[in-house]
Amino acid sequence: MSTGLPHFRHHPDPVASGSVRESAETCVCCNRSTGWIYTATFYTAREVSGRFCPWCIADGSAAERFEGEFTDAYGFEGLSGETVEEVTRRTPGFQAWQDPYWLVHCNDAAAFIGEVGYAELATHPEALDQLRLDLRMGGWHDASRLENFLTHLGQEANAMLFRCTVCDTHLAYADAS
Ligand SMILES: [Zn+2]
Ligand SMILES: [Zn+2]
Hints:
This protein has helices spanning about 55-60, 60-65, 80-90, 120, 125-135, 145-150; strands spanning about 20, 35-40, 45, 70, 105, 110, 110-115, 155-165, 170-175.
């Protein structure tokens, strides 16, 4: 990818994930038209009458100026304050049916890859196995119903796919309407 976008350690390809799109829109923070605009979540009590460019996300100016966060810190209890700040205030979030949250592995927030269906998830067997186990622990006791749910991911539900920044293991959670 040669878009010249800033590098986001925890969201390496926000164009592929759909969180950043090519657009002539002007950034509400720096008032520049950079050719790219952020389209996903931003949580703030302030009124924001527009969208941000990726550069104002990367340098923290959007989060600072509009006193908000791109992602909820849910699940980040064990992480360093620096990591939590990087993910919540300087990393593009993503759109999901339910409130999006970040997965954690090897004591770091994982890198968000994107929303995937069964076929793509199955190319990362470790992520599929981990998701199956999580769902079973979460109360899916009927094995055939669970397999049916997993193989239909990409239709009424999706898998949110991440990759560990340390060991490169893929992991996922299921997001449904
Ligand atoms: Zn900007
Ligand atoms: Zn790991």
